[in-house]
Amino acid sequence: MSVLDALRRRFAGPPEPVRAAVEDPDERVLAWGPLAREDGWLVATSRGLRTVVAGGAADALPWHEVGAARWAGTNDGGGSFTVTPLAEVEPGVQARQPTVRHVLSDAGDLPAVVRRRVDQTILTSRRSPLPGGGGVLLVARRVPGQAAREWTVVFDDDADRDDPVARDVARQKLSEALAAEQPG
């Protein structure tokens, strides 16, 4: 994309279907890219990552539920995002959901905006080993509408969630992280 094309895109604003899909006046469109394999867009808003397809459907994934978003660009300005959503499976425990791949014909500012927004939700994270191998990721995230940070555990291997010893160790590590934040 030429510099002139980038400037035109920035000042032109999002396409009408993207604007129409974001109905809440408090939600702002930050960046977007046309999907290469279907008629629609991948859109970064102030609240999350949206897929807008023809007909107006707009699936949204809040920023604090993005476990990973990997960008692989191509020389023509396009590329693909591989996004791994997280879902709460029980209080304090999140599980990785199946990854979703979005192929874009023109990414524009989308990769940088997605990276910044996901990074802004993560306040701290640390990996801890589990007995017998594997581990957990302890993550403190900023969640919109909540004053306190939210700590969660994500198991490296979902099967470890069913192991009582691994679950106890994970609960203990989560309790230690929460206790370390409390004023003494």
Automatic annotation (TrEMBL):
<protein>
    <submittedName>
        <fullName>Uncharacterized protein</fullName>
    </submittedName>
</protein>
